[in-house]
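Listing 4. Sequential folding, example run.
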Amino acid sequence: MTYSLAFIRTTDGYLKVTASAKGAPLLSATYQTPDVLVAAARIASISEKEIFDLSWTAKRAWENEDLNVCCEAVNLEPDQLESLGFREDWRRLA
């Protein structure tokens, strides 16, 4: 499924990534740094080009705390979403 990813550095210093796709629940994952995201992407067998794009975008969001950054669409399988630590963002569903 194709997901649009958005990145933001939280006020408590973490990198939050949200994933949205048509007809799917909103998902989110939180990482200590962009490097942790890159490590998780490698474990999830994401392509090197997509890892490069994710890394670049995540680092932009990390360096600019008040900036929400969106990345191009990424194709992710359910097992990749799990490896990346994405879970339903239940707090936004209320």
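-- end of first protein; second protein begins --
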Amino acid sequence: MRMAFGTGALATGVAAVVVSGLLVWVAGLLLGWSDPWPAGIWVVGLAGIGAAVAAYVAEWIAYRRTLTRMRSIGEPWAYREGGRDRS
């Protein structure tokens, strides 16, 4: 599951980089900045990293809640990975 969460987080981070880069570029055009990228590169990088970390944490929380809910409906061993809890 960690690999699935990681690839989802990577895709989210890349999408955030693209969108924030586009926003920095458009803001630079609208505000007449001659060179927005010295400061914009920090915005783009932090947006990508922040979105990737947030996506990974959100997926992990959703996964843990799903396992908890599945275990609480009466089949505790049916949904465990390898027959034991790997918290």
